Amino acid sequence: MAYPYTHPKEVRVLSQYFGDPEARTLKGWEARGGYQALRKALGTPREEIVNTVKASGLRGRGGAGFPTGMKWGFMPRKVEGTPHYLICNADESEPGTFKDRELMRWTPHALVEGCVIGAYAINAEHAYIYIRGEFFEAAQVMARAIEEAYAAGYLGKNILGSGIDIDLTLHLGAGAYICGEETGLLNSLEGRRGEPRVKPPYPAISGAFGKPTAVNNVESLIAAAHIVLNGADWYKQWGTEKSVGTKLFCVSGHVKRPGNYEVPLGFNFKEFIYDVCGGTPDGRPIKAVIPGGSSVPILTADELDIGMDYEAMAAAGTMLGCGSVIVMDDTTNIVKQVRRMVDFYAHESCGQCTPCREGTAWAARILRRMEQGRGVPDDIDTLLAISENMSGRTICVLSDAAAAPITSSIEKFRADYDALMAPEPGLVGAGLTGAAHGSVR
Amino acid sequence: MAEESKAAVETVHITIDGIELDVPKGTRILDAAAMAGADVPHYCYHPGLTAPAQCRMCLVEIEKVPKLQPACVATVADGNVIHTQSEKALEARKGVLEFYLVNHPLDCPVCDQSGECKLQDYTAAEGRAIGRSLEPKRVLGRDDFGGDVTFYADRCVMCTRCVRFMREVAQDERLTVVQRGHRSVIDTFFDDGLDGNIWADNIVDICPVGALVSKDFLHKARAWDLDRTPSICPNCTQGCNVRLETRDNQVQRIKPRPNPEVNAHWMCDYGRLNYEWINRGARIEAPLVRGADGALQAVSWSEALTRLAAALQGSAGESRAVVSPFMANEDIGLLRRVIDSTGGGNGVYRCQTGEEVVLPGFPTLALRTDRAANVHGAELFGFGRTGGADGLGGLESVANHAGALWVLGDELADAPAGFGSAASVFVYVGHFLSPAARNAHFVLPATTFAEMEGTFTNVRKRVQRFWPALQAPGMSRPAWQILGVLLAGIGDAAPVATAADAFAVLGGVRPEFAGLAWGDLGQQGAPLGSFAEAGD
Amino acid sequence: MSAGHGRADSPPSSWPAALQNPGFAGDTGEFAALSEADVRGSAYVGERPRDGGHASVAGTLPYQVGANDGEAPIFVGEYEERLQKILSRYPDRQNALLPALHMAHEIRGYLSPATMDEVAARLELAPAYVRGVASFYTMYNLGPVGKYLIQVCTNISCNLCGGDAVFEAFLKHTGTEAGETSANGLWTVMEVECLGACGFPTAVQINERYFENIRPEDVPAVLETLQ
Q1: Could you say which of A114, A233, B336, B527 would form a disulfide bridge with A221 (CB–CB 3.0 to 4.6 Å)?
Q2: Which stretches within B186-327 are classed as H helix?
Q3: Rounded mean pLDDT of C124-134?
């Protein structure tokens, strides 16, 4: 079941054992059917695994929604002497997202299994799990599980007598959201500053240590293991035609029952928030909802009657992203929350590209000044111009992500901004912009 | 001319700003645009370094490609139609420039880079007239990076050229980006600065703004007041191609100019900062001849050379000479010719030496052990080394010579008091009237390399031209001209009027020079024939 | 050779025994019957050996600030063994930089210039390069911090549920300014970005442990369990 609240409308594929402490142990996992997928995979030709995952329609669960099977299919033919790598992206840092932590601390062996299957499928002999540094505790659970797996012969040389060697290494990050971007992650894994790389070349050609690499999200790998075990058609019983399967949705903010829920893609968003999550705590009206993590445009309360899938969200002018739902009721000061989000991007920008490095900080300062009631009418146009100059111009999309809450909130919550205009704009000088707390490092 | 290579280079056909051209496959769009005459603005790209594509200035529009592409890393594809000045491209650049100026101090009135600043140039061309930021600017201040480099952090555009130069070319990673995002700043490893690395000043060259500046040059001269003359660094045998940048008839600084065969884009700090000696005053300004009363008298050139020719005819036996390795091929070669025409003889040169320091990222370039430009020219024309590592001593063999004694450019700073007193004819062709020079019968004022045309021969036997950057003082003349006129006077040699004439004489002295025509030299030089394939 | 803080396989002495309340997420929802150990998985994890255990996981020991001794040697004894295991998992020495910095951080409490220099020397990297990498990441403290580094999430999900008030409460009850260390050396309080526990607002990370569902009124009790 999902955690810490359950709901009968859930479909519990990945989250079945959340809240079940036995499931994290090797014995517990095996007793619950674990490692059957791995056994089946190692007895299946690699190309068939890739094709199965392709046919299933599984899309990357980390936010980009890129078809997982297609990503694996981009790996080049294996050349003797050229190692391939599978990287599991467990650098869960998108605000509002907390599903991978649950997957790792309740079902660590599921991830070990997913990594082995993914590595096998792409001819990799070494897989790395890049886990964000703050997840010390989840990392310890993963570490224990990996040690158990090695001891039981699910990892290492000649896995279960198959003749296949796959090593797994757990790598701890050190606090940088940008290391969730796949090429930033690769640089961080290599012991560099976690700055994203220019693409091309793509990781499938030149990734970790310059070698062919596939980077996959935790949830994607675990789902892939289920698909290998049960078949592509089994997975298609849920979801829509282009957004197949189930997904973990993280719900936070002004909801009665925050937590993770697993529902089929395409589930009605309004029903999800009001029924499954219980609506707002005091029954107050909803003002705004972010459907997919802070990097996607904000929706108003009137825009929620859509499916929770990639296509419907895009049609509504936003994105499914990583499925992190943040609900805001009518007590919310939108400008304050947008400011806080833009502060986040300014703080996390790697600093390579000029539009992002300067634009996020500038926008954050304007929003801070507006939040303090010292906004001027030109600020709106300036914010929109900054957002435009930050979009589509940079090595990675953190810049575009920072612009999303700005443009969508100005478009849909203009009244919140107007309410913060200074009574005498002419007196707004270049004075203090210090926020309440300046200690975010 | 180089032979056409047998394998044809594959080309692609593209259009840039309406101009159609064929360029080799794999060419960066930035370079292809340059071939078409379109200079795409950029900061982080530099031809001598890797390209991180992070400044986002060089974004160009390619038809049918949805996003703007960075021209410094995107390569041409057949059929590309590229616009560097389309509305989208211009808007993108305008936006990036505005972002740079949000925190930039705009202190052009006190910034050395003013007049040669890429931020000024691009903003004036394509930037917004007025910035829209109302926020206070971040202030980082000034940091002493050690060596000759000061860092004005507020002006930095975070192009990271300096970091990459130290890492990739100097291969001595002294600089890094500290922190991330808008807090990022270039810094050293705390108090470990750039001291001890002799390539550090190259980062001042490649910094597109006034963030990294030379302490030596600080507030000395404005860029637009400087005249820039192509020349060759005189300070070691590497022969880095440089520009002498002058104002008020003084060298204000030396900057490298690119030569892929010699120094790429770089030069060392030793050579770069050793220019004060070129500006020394107190020069000999007129020809001086010793009169009957034993005193030196200023005379005209024609009188000086007429009397010298007569004196030489009256002198018997071999000559001796001391030449300076700072003199040009033409100077030294013509002296060899004069000596050979007047009974023969031999001579020496002195040269200061020091440790060789190779530039790891471009090992063709090194600060060479011989700390003067034309040691190899001197050797080729038959002069041998004498003296110590300090460039002094070793004059015993010539000090008391009884026949004709020639001194060409050597200041004789350490010569004994009676130097040359036994000589039948002592001719001092040089720049400064040192005590030993006063013993000469003839003191003929010569120009330095900075005041004339000529060539040096570098350690790899490459002959490279330099041009006059300074006005010659008084009546001084290039030594090759003095000796050339003298030669014509004492024999039937053709008159020498230009450096090209003088160069043509060299072929008769050393056959290697015969294979090289003045017109072959250009601004990048050419190797002496028999040494063209030889290594170092 | 012991690195100087207790038995080789015991958690750092800075950490008191785990307590049920306040601040662990098992208190919410339908799983209140779970113990804290069940939720954290601490019994499953057990004690991790200081030499890293299996090489595959040697880079991920649980101690952010295990000790706080600026002079303690870093790459000796069990820690050197751990580093060797880590090095065996990557093609190049440079790839071990983040785990090596974590180790140095664990022993010394923060990365001083001298510490960065030692890590650089051990991995044969330029010190300036190591400084550039270390300063990029938030979790490497570049100056000394208190015995307990209290990191309060004030990003949007926690912010909507009063994260700012929780932050203020920590500042008030520890008597510190944001980012500064208290006079008694116990506390440093700072804001951080999303900790990935958004369903349990407000999330607070203290050294390596998460405290969740923290409200301002919980703060005094949390501080007391630490002291």
Answers
A1: A114
A2: 202-206, 269-273, 301-313
A3: 98
Q: Is there a contact between A141 and C41 (Cβ–Cβ < 8 Å)?
A: yes
Domains of chain A: 34-235 (3.40.50.11540), 246-329 (3.10.20.600), 334-429 (1.20.1440.230)
CB contact under 8 A, C131 and B177: no
CB atoms < 10 A from the CB of B165, how many? 25
- Distance, in Å, from the CA atom of B275 to the CA atom of B449, rounded to the nearest integer, reads 12
Whether the upstream peptide bond of residue A258 has omega within 30° of 0, thus cis, is no
Distance from CA of A336 to the nearest CA of B (A): 18
List the structure tokens of B57: 């200035």
What whole-number distance in Å separates Cα of residue B16 and Cα of residue A401?
Answer: 32
Indicate whether C12 pLDDT > 80.
no
Beta-carbon contacts of residue B299 (< 8 Å; ≥ 6 apart): B286, B287, B288, B289, B307
Q: Structural domains in chain C?
A: 55-134 (no CATH), 148-226 (3.40.30.10)
**Angle separating helix axes B499-509 and B479-490, nearest 10 degrees:** 60
For the stretch B222-240, pLDDT in tens is: 999 999 999 999 999 999 9
Q: Best interface-test mutation with B: which of C136, C138, C141, C193 has the largest number of B CBs within 10 A?
A: C136
Q: CA-nearest residue of chain B to C126?
A: B173
Q: How many CB atoms lie within 10 A of CB A237?
A: 12
Nearest to B470 by CA among B279, B215, B298: B279
> How does A249-270 read in b/e, with b if 16+ C-beta sit within 10 Å?
bbbbbbbebbbbbbbbbbbbbb
What would the mean pLDDT of A326-348 be, rounded to a whole number? 96
DSSP type of residue A181: S
Cβ neighbors of A20 (< 8 A, separation 6 or more) are: A28, A106
**Count of other CB atoms within 10 angstroms of residue C155:** 27
**Smallest Cα distance from C19 to chain A, Å:** 16
SS3 A35: coil
pLDDT of residue A437: 30
Say if A94 is an interface residue toward chain C (CB within 8 Å): yes
A398 to chain B: closest CA residue: B181
Q: Do C25 and A190 touch (CB under 8 A)?
A: no
Kindly list the residues from chain B whose CB atom is less than 8 angstroms away from the CB atom of residue C127: 189, 192
C209-211 and C204-206 strand pairing: antiparallel
| Interchain CB distance below 8 Å, A101 and C196 | yes
Mutation target vs A (from C101, C140, C156; most A CBs, 10 A cutoff): C156
- CB of B42 closer than 8 Å to CB of B54: no
Residue B296 and residue B428 in contact, taking contact as beta carbons nearer than 8 Å: no
CB contact under 8 A, A100 and C38: no
Touching subunits of A (3+ CB pairs, under 8 Å) are B, C
Residue from A350, A353, A382 to probe the interface with B (highest B Cβ count within 10 Å): A353
State how far residue C46 is from chain B, nearest Cα, in angstroms. Answer: 36
Residues 249-268 of chain A whose Cβ lies under 8 A from any Cβ of chain C: 250-254, 257-260
**Chain C residues inside the 8 Å CB shell of A140:** 41, 45, 48, 60, 62
Cβ contacts below 8 Å, chain A against chain C, sum to: 241
The Cα B294–Cα B289 span in angstroms is 9
Single-letter amino acid code for the residue at B61: E
Sheet holding C187-192, edge to edge: C187-192, C148-153, C204-206, C209-211
Half-sphere exposure of A136 (CA within 13 A, CB side): 20
pLDDT at A126 over 80: yes
Residue B396 has pLDDT above 50, yes or no: yes
Closest alpha carbon within chain A to B181: A351
